[in-house]
Design a protein that fits this description.
The complex is a heterodimer of chains A (about 325) and B (about 450). Chain A has about 325 residues and is an alpha/beta fold. Chain A is built from twelve helices and seven strands. In chain A, strands 1-7-2-5-4-3 form a six-stranded parallel beta sheet, with helices on both faces. Chain A is elongated and about 70 Å long. Chain B is α/β, with parallel strands linked by helices and about 450 residues long. Chain B has 18 helices and six strands. Chain B has a five-stranded parallel beta sheet with strand order 2-3-4-1-5, with helices on both faces. The interface between A and B is large, with 61 and 66 residues. Strand 6 of chain A pairs antiparallel with strand 6 of chain B, so a sheet runs across the interface.
Chain lengths: ~325, ~450
């Protein structure tokens, strides 16, 4: 049974963006769309809605990112985050909480500018701000240790842009998956690349971090339509990614783990947008992967009306 | 799911309506209630739902509690308490029960890991099982990377730590000398990177032997450990044994491993199923020579697995026959474990008790309260409807939540529920055995 896109979006806005996720909840929804056009429109409208509601938004498309690899998903999300802006926002709030004034230029939170705005010696400020970072950031155990260390580094770079800028740059590259040698991050006490074992923790940490920086939460729009589409012959491909059936199941497994992991996450709304093949393809539908089928199947439903709050909804052709 | 609310948790189980609380607590309880409803709507029980509803299987919970008591002394006795196998129909509350058992074990100071058998975590692959168990491990008193927390909780002057060193260094432990060597380096080094690398090794990552030799040389212990070659396939088993002891040395009562959705092994090939049955026997402590003291396991499986896979597909005869006729000694050893594993599924499984009418009424009342708390409204009591024995707990819960959802969104609507049946396909599927594109990435030096 299908639901109109506008009706579903309206419920998502009211019940999730403006309420549950904003209050610290987490959820994963799957929307099956009839075609590429309606999927793109749903993706764009949802992103706009989320941004307007004060969320950070990341869109990850399975045709461009190997979504079966959670580290690639994290890197793709990280590449869409304004890390320096977020670090400044966190720092500004921390400074205000400590009863200090902010400089007139909101983009300059250097110790020199802060000292001038507060008429105190920079050295004195350095100690109190470092203490606050330790207390409010490093000891916030809802984020993984590597993530906390990375954010401490980004905040310190705002306070003192001349303090090991290469390490700050390496931190950003690490988050985006572009760092070539992990040894460049030793000074930040980060010793491991982002990989499958830590990417999920990093995603959960990021969702928490965006809330600390004043946003309502993180919305991750995953376009997984490509996963269920069989690959065309090689000479008809356009350079985008296609998935073997086994890789499709890996992507479904990634989705299953996101669903099961909502218990440990706050402020994260994942919306997976699928094509019709997701429910109908005899070889690649989600029904073929029981672990995901267990979570999404709507074996109990109303005879006449779809539930827009269900884990899996089918979006109709109409507006 | 019975009505055992968990008193004293400060959560949903205390029967207080959010509107009776101060605004901040109201908001917190609303989110908790929403989390519970969201999870139940998706058929994934979560901690909030279990805190509110209880485990619902008092007999199995009592049996598990008894196992926890036995397992408490396992490390000291060098034995492994045999694990439990819980059977129930699809949607009967197996996963819900596992969350309840996890909460129970955490309260008894056990470290808990929960894994679902899946493409990424095939039961027959001990390396993947171990890594998944470590990734999901929860400590009773702290969050974050469990292995790092365990490592930094070690008291090097304590008797339990001394016993860990002694056990790991003795030939009777049958574990490689890289384990005691890594303990020594971890204890003595002040270098954070070295500590990080050792924790990664304990978590299942490879450790470059020449690197370990360098660290030992730095500590003046160059010749203390032979650091022999260990076949890769043997390491995961040793990791399980070492980590169980490490958990004990860090002051916890033991390690509980909860494995959900065991029935998915039906889709493996016959050889992989044989390995999975063997793994079941092994990890549940049923193979005397391959025990892992300190580890207690609970597996869940669908009730019809025995009929459809062990008997109709005839795994119970075909798998041992095929293995026994193999010229390879390893296959004959595998055959013994596989038979034990299948026998355990057949004879030792404990069936979930289906709820009676009274329990269902009580459950509906509880869910009514949670739905009300989640959305700040008063859901109506729903007509009981047909209560067939074939209706699963999941179907009841989904029906109630679905109807309340629709009624809240449109009070004029009169829901009309249709319940279908989820049929699990036990057929083999080779694509489920394809390894994921990238395996665990070793640290840079080992690449």
């Amino acid at each position: 049974m299908e639901i109109r896109a506008t009706d579903w979006l309206s419920v998502m806005r009211r019940e999730y963006l403006d309420d549950f996720i904003r209050s610290g909840g987490a959820a994963v929804k799957v929307a099956v769309t009839p075609d590429d056009f309606s999927r793109r429109r749903l993706r764009d409208t949802l992103s706009e809605q989320a941004e307007a509601a004060g969320f950070r938004v990341a869109v990850v498309n399975a045709a461009a990112t190997k979504v079966q690899l959670i580290d690639r998903v994290f890197h793709s999300v990280a590449a869409q985050m304004p890390w320096e802006t977020m670090a400044r926002a966190f720092l500004a709030q921390s400074i205000l909480r400590a009863g200090r004034r902010l400089p007139d230029d909101p983009d300059d939170l250097s110790l020199t500018a802060l000292a001038a705005a507060n008429d105190v010696p920079a050295r004195h400020l350095h100690t109190s701000v470092a203490d606050a970072l330790w207390r409010e950031l490093y000891r916030d155990y809802r984020m993984s240790q590597e993530f906390r260390l990375a954010m401490v580094r980004l905040c310190r770079a705002q306070l003192d842009p001349d303090d090991e800028p290469a390490v700050t740059e390496a931190t950003l590259l690490w988050l985006r998956g572009e760092l070539r040698r992990i040894s460049e991050l030793k000074r930040a006490l980060i010793f491991q690349k982002v990989a499958r074992h830590n990417a999920r923790h990093l995603l959960a940490s990021l969702a928490h971090w965006v809330r600390l920086t004043g946003s309502a939460g993180l919305v991750l729009v995953l376009d997984i339509a490509r996963c269920a589409q069989p690959a065309p012959p090689r000479d008809e491909r356009d350079g985008s990614l296609y998935y073997s059936r086994a890789a499709t199941f890996d992507a479904y497994e990634m989705l299953r783990q996101l669903i099961d992991g909502t218990d440990d996450v706050e402020g994260l709304f994942v919306v997976a947008l699928a094509g019709p093949e997701f429910t109908t393809d005899p070889k690649r539908s989600y029904v073929q992967y029981p672990a995901l089928q267990y979570r999404l199947a709507d074996e109990v439903h109303d005879r006449y009306r779809p539930n827009p709050l269900a884990a899996l909804v089918r979006i109709g052709d109409g507006e | 799911m019975a009505s055992e609310g968990m008193a004293g948790d400060g959560g949903l189980g205390e029967g207080m309506m959010p509107s009776e609380l101060p605004p901040v607590e109201q908001s917190g309880l609303r989110v908790q209630a929403r989390r519970a409803i969201e999870a139940l709507r998706a058929g994934v029980p979560n901690h909030d739902a279990v805190l509110a509803l209880g485990g619902g299987q008092p007999q199995i919970e009592a049996r598990f509690r008894q196992k926890l008591e036995e397992a408490d002394d396992d490390v000291e006795r060098s034995t492994q308490t045999s694990g439990l196998i819980v059977a129930g129909d699809f949607g009967s509350g197996k996963s819900h029960l596992l969350v309840a058992l996890e909460q129970l074990a955490l309260r008894e100071n056990f470290v808990c890991s929960t894994v679902s058998v899946s493409k990424e975590i095939p039961l027959h692959d001990p390396d993947k099982l171990y890594r998944a168990a470590i990734r999901s491990a929860r400590l009773p008193d702290r969050r974050g990377n469990a292995l790092a927390e365990l490592a930094f909780k070690l008291n090097f002057d304590s008797l339990p730590y001394e016993e860990l060193v002694e056990w790991s260094s003795s030939s009777a432990s049958h574990i490689a000398t890289r384990f005691p060597a890594s303990l020594l380096v971890f204890q003595r080094t002040h270098d954070e990177e070295t500590k990080d690398r050792i924790i990664s090794f304990w978590g299942g990552d490879p450790l470059n032997t020449s690197q370990l030799r360098r660290w030992l040389r730095d500590q003046g212990e160059a010749g203390t450990f032979p650091l022999e070659h260990v076949p890769q396939r043997e390491l995961p088993l040793q990791h399980f044994q070492f980590t169980s002891r490490l958990i004990s040395a860090a002051g916890y009562a033991g390690w509980v491993l909860l494995v959900d959705e065991l029935e998915l092994i039906a889709q493996y090939s016959a050889k992989a199923r044989a390995q999975a049955y063997h793994a079941l026997a092994r990890w549940s402590g049923r193979l005397k020579d391959l025990q892992c003291p300190g580890l207690l396991t609970v597996f869940t499986i669908t009730r019809d697995f025995t009929t459809l896979v062990l008997h109709q597909r005839n795994d119970v005869e075909r798998i041992p026959d095929r293995l026994r006729s193999s010229p390879r000694e390893a296959d004959r050893v595998l055959s013994v474990g596989a038979e034990l594993g299948m026998r355990a599924i057949e004879r030792d499984r404990i069936a979930l008790t289906p709820p009676d009418a009274e329990a269902l009424d009580r459950l509906q009342e509880q869910l009514q309260e949670i739905h009300g708390a989640a959305y700040d409204w008063r859901p109506p009591t729903l007509p009981p409807g047909e209560r067939a024995t074939s209706t699963s707990m999941r179907q009841y819960v989904r029906r109630w939540i679905n109807e309340w959802d629709l009624l809240r969104l449109d009070p004029e609507y009169r829901p009309s529920t249709v319940a279908g049946e989820l049929v699990f396909d036990y057929d083999e599927d080779a694509d489920l055995e394809q390894p994921p594109e990238h395996l665990e990435q070793p640290p840079e030096d080992d690449a």
